[in-house]
Amino acid sequence: MSVPWLRSVGRASLCALCAALASCAIYHPKALPRHSTFATIAQLRAPRRTFGLPGLKPQPLDPAAGLTAVNIMQLAVAADPLLRAERARVGIARAQLFAAGLLPDPVLSGGLGKSPTRLGYSIGLMQDVRALVTLQAHRSAARARARQVDLQVLWQEWQVAERAQVLFIQARQEHALAQVLRPQRHLFGLLVQREQRAWVRGDVAAARAAAALAAWDGVQRRWRALKLAQNRTWHGLDALLGLPPGTRLALRGAAGVRPLSSSAVRAALVALPQRRPDLLALRAGYASGEQQLRAAILRQYPMLGLGVDYAHSADQGVRTVGFTIQLTLPLFNRNRGAIAVARATRAYLYRQYQARLDAALNGADQLVRTVRIMRQQLRVLDARVAHLQRSRAAADVSYRRGELTLAGYCTVLASLDAVRADAISLRAALQQARAALDMLLARPL
């Protein structure tokens, strides 16, 4: 029997196979970097992208004049090395989405047989049809998984922006504390020198000189703690901005954290499941789990494979054309293991979403109460600072007239500076709490 069309199909298949092999990907090795890629201050540029963060719009940069809180946040989101590495996950998810939409390649089989006088051969082409049954479910799962990765990266960008804002607040707070402690160190240094000389001359008791030295030690201890805190803060900023360790930037302006009313908090809590990227990412992950379970259930039914065969016998030279059907019988496995795993995964994702939502609501309530308590405490401290400033003005006059000793004058200044330092620290903590609340409620930056 002559089947010229089948020979044509065979030749076409061979040509297609050669073309497919010619277009195959080629492996190229890529070595890991050996050197750092830190940027310098002169290389800082305002990013052109907004990265999808609401409220964070690119602003012009002028490092010489000082960077604002918004500048620091946008640079951190654009340049943080760990965040840039996380964005590579988006490419993985896109590749997985592409792979989920591909059909399996057909299988080409062949064989040879020889009799004493003839050479026989057979050719077969088989296509797995079962992939068509689960194709849509796998595509939907991969699409939801890609959206989940996008939202996870967005939430990490949000956290990096909030972390940069907190570091900006800390840097400004520590600068203000240094402005308070620096003159205090100078004044107490003079006091210690004077009291030590007076004690050597026998003009004052040893207890008085020891008290001055103890006060000086206290100022020095706070100064050392401040220097360590500044070192941590600046290295944290350098790491977020991709700058060499030890780089110091000029900062200017306030943190720009806005107070929230009770009605705004309530409205944000109601809209939280539709706004916060991590909750939306968990919902996308749950949707992917649903589609994975659907695909697993579909694979329990009999699956079909279709093929065509052409054979030329070796003994009598008979040519035959036939069709092949492969049918998987669901007798023992029935894909029950994959179904059980998919169901357990869906249950885990459900609980994970519920736990994250509950934690978000609890955390928001805690921060709202924390902000309220800090505001009350700050009002008390501000009133105390105003009272001590009036006392200092009187002490300045008394000291210039000689009615107040240097030790007494230092005591008045130390009381004022201690309360001022507490107020500076509490105001910074209040700004940080408000920034954390904005992030938790997914409010525009």
Write up this protein.
With 445 residues, the chain is an alpha+beta fold. The protein has one domain (79-245, 259-440): Outer membrane efflux proteins (OEP), CATH 1.20.1600. It contains ten helices and four strands. A hairpin with a 6-residue loop joins strand 3 (304-312) and strand 4 (319-327). Helix 3 (81-100) runs antiparallel to helix 4 and helix 8 packs antiparallel against helix 9 (336-401). It starts with a helix and ends in a 5-residue tail after the last helix.
Write a brief caption for the model.
This protein has 445 residues and is an alpha+beta fold.
* Mean pLDDT rating: 84
Distance between the termini: 78 Å
Total helix count?
10
As for the CATH topology, it is Outer membrane efflux proteins (OEP)
Describe the largest sheet: 4 strands, antiparallel
- Percent of residues in helical segments? 55-70%
Q: Secondary-structure element order, as H and E?
A: HHHEEHHHHHEEHH
Assigned CATH class: Mainly Alpha
Structural class estimated from helices and strands? alpha+beta
Shape call: elongated
Strand order of the largest sheet: 1-2-3-4
Strands, count: 4
Using only C-alpha atoms, the radius of gyration works out to 36 Å
Proportion of residues in extended strands: 5-15%
Q: What is the correct CATH architecture?
A: Up-down Bundle
Our count of domains comes out at: 1
- Which segments are poorly predicted (pLDDT under 50) over 5 or more consecutive residues? none
The CATH superfamily bears the name Outer membrane efflux proteins (OEP)
